[in-house]
Structures are given as structure tokens and as C-alpha cells.
Write a structure and sequence with these properties.
Strand content: 5-15%
Number of helices: 12
Helix content: 40-55%
Shape: elongated
Structural class: alpha/beta
Number of strands: 5
Radius of gyration: 24 Å
């Protein structure tokens, strides 16, 4: 292991210094390097390169299950246990989620919709149920608020918008974008928390116009809207926590890039480790059984 460490670090430090610090001889190191590697070691080294490439394509967010599916999709047949071992031995770890801070203002006089969704997060087709929420993103100019709507069938972001204010105009723009993109039939369930933007007269009027059924979480119960909360936790762990946005505009452009990645390329565990869009396309030719 000492010789392997020296081999990795020799680009940064002189070999003689590394050997002295680790208490080994230079002749021993060169003799170790001259030994032919076993076929197994060579295969493992090549697989580690593929694993690192898969993690890079996943923007650092892929653990062993997603890496396994990514390699399989590229025709590389390997067991998940072997991937787990090589990732562990090489210190390859996916970024971790953390809980996000709620921005809900439920102290208002607007009507509260019943919890129609009732934590039933599984649907048999698109545009049967959407979930929405708002979070905030730090920038050098101040907070940037992000409102999203996700389709429970594929976990696809179907509508989103940003603003410097967390108000009903922000929520309405996200809803308008979703309606234009998806054109849902009557009966769609639209679930959010009890925030004033979603309970406002303007927002409820749009839902009624499109014959959309409003649904709201119980008071302070994050589990009632767990899918939206999970998306924000993923967004922040995989993207926001690694960026420093100088302006709200830069933040919005960067969020657009991540949402495109999330919808088009990121492998989602809920939809058999394919992207939300690929899952929807597959469902068009291979309908999901009820």
C-alpha cells in the first residue's frame, strides 16, 4: 500500500521524500513498479476508470447502484458488489443529501384544500398527480426563490420558475409553465403545502379553470409532500452546495442547466434507474401495469 501511495503522489512530491517519510527504500519502490500486474489488478484498474467516468457523468451524485446501472447501459457487465468494493477501496463516495429549510407561510386566511393525495405517491401514468413546493437559493445579491412542480409518475420537473420574492406570482409562473408544457386533462391532483401562494384566490382560480383538483399537506407535516422535499434535497446536495452564484440571473441559468440534467440524464431510483424523460418515453410503448 505504501508503494501504491508513492506511485499516486509522485507527481506532487519527490520520490526520495515520499520514501523517506514512509520508511521505504527507493530501490524497493522501483522494484515494485517493475513487477507485472496481475490480470485481475489490471481489470480492476480499468474498471475504476469507468466508475470515475460514470460518477463524473452523474455530477458526483452517483453511488454504487446508479454507477452499476450506468455501466450496464454502456455494455459493461459487472456485479454491484465489485463496484461497491472498488469504490470503497478508492474512496469514491457520492455527495450526500441534507434536509432543506422550509419557506412555508401558512398563517393566512385563505381556504385550505383537503389532503386528497394522502401520501399516495405512486401513479400509473403522467399528469395524474403533480406535487409542488418552493425553496430558496443563496446568491451574492440575496435569496433566489425557486418554485417547482413535479409529476409523480416519472418524478420529472414539469414546471419551474425563480424570483427574488416568494409570492403568488412566482408560484403562478411555475404553474403556467407546467400547464403550457403538459396540457393535463381534467382531474389532475395538484398537491402542495399550505403556503399562502398556493391558497391564494388567483392560484385557486387557475386550478379551477383547468379542472385541477387542489390538495394540501397537513399542518407542518413534511412527509405529506416528501417527493418535492426530496427533490430540493437532491438539488442542493448535487448542485447548489457546490456553486457560488454571484447574481440571481447566474443562479437561474445554473438551475436551468441542472434541471435539464435531472430530467434528461440523471438516473432516478424510483423509475428503475433511468431518467424521468426516458421513463416517460418507455411508458408510451410499454405501459406500466396498474
Amino acid at each position: 500500500m505504501k508503494f501504491a501511495f508513492i506511485d499516486v503522489e509522485k507527481a506532487q512530491y519527490p520520490i526520495v521524500v515520499l520514501c523517506d517519510v514512509l520508511g521505504v527504500t527507493r530501490s524497493g519502490f522501483y522494484a515494485w513498479r517493475s513487477r507485472p500486474s496481475s490480470p485481475k489488478k489490471i481489470a480492476d484498474a480499468q474498471l475504476v476508470i469507468e466508475i470515475k467516468a460514470a460518477m463524473k457523468r452523474g455530477r458526483g451524485a452517483y453511488g454504487s447502484p446508479r454507477v452499476h446501472r450506468e455501466l450496464r447501459a454502456r455494455g459493461i457487465r459487472v456485479s454491484k458488489k465489485r463496484i461497491e468494493r472498488l469504490m470503497r477501496e478508492n474512496g469514491l463516495v457520492a455527495v450526500q443529501k441534507r434536509r432543506f429549510v422550509h419557506t412555508t407561510d401558512s398563517h393566512h386566511a385563505f381556504p385550505i384544500a383537503p389532503n386528497v393525495l394522502d401520501r399516495n405517491f405512486d401513479t400509473t401514468g403522467p399528469n395524474q398527480a403533480w406535487v409542488g413546493d418552493v425553496t430558496y437559493i443563496p446568491t451574492a445579491e440575496g435569496w433566489l426563490y425557486l418554485a417547482v412542480l413535479l409529476d409523480l409518475f416519472s418524478r420529472r420537473v414539469v414546471g419551474w420558475a425563480t424570483s427574488e420574492s416568494n409570492d403568488r406570482a412566482l408560484a403562478l409562473r411555475a404553474l403556467d409553465n407546467a400547464l403550457r408544457a403538459r396540457r393535463p386533462a381534467a382531474g389532475l391532483v395538484h398537491h402542495t403545502d399550505r403556503g399562502s401562494p398556493y391558497a391564494s384566490d388567483d392560484y385557486r382560480r387557475v386550478l379551477a379553470t383547468h379542472e385541477i383538483v387542489p390538495s394540501m399537506s397537513g399542518t407542518g407535516d413534511c412527509y405529506d409532500n416528501a417527493v418535492a422535499e426530496s427533490f430540493f434535497a437532491t438539488l442542493k446536495a448535487e448542485h447548489v452546495d457546490h456553486e457560488n452564484f454571484l447574481t440571481r440571473h447566474v443562479g437561474t441559468v445554473s438551475l436551468a442547466d441542472y434541471i435539464d440534467f435531472y430530467n434528461c440524464a440523471r438516473r432516478h431510483s424510483h423509475v428503475d434507474y433511468v431518467s424521468p424523460i426516458e421513463f416517460e418515453l418507455r411508458a408510451q410503448t410499454q405501459p406500466i401495469a396498474a
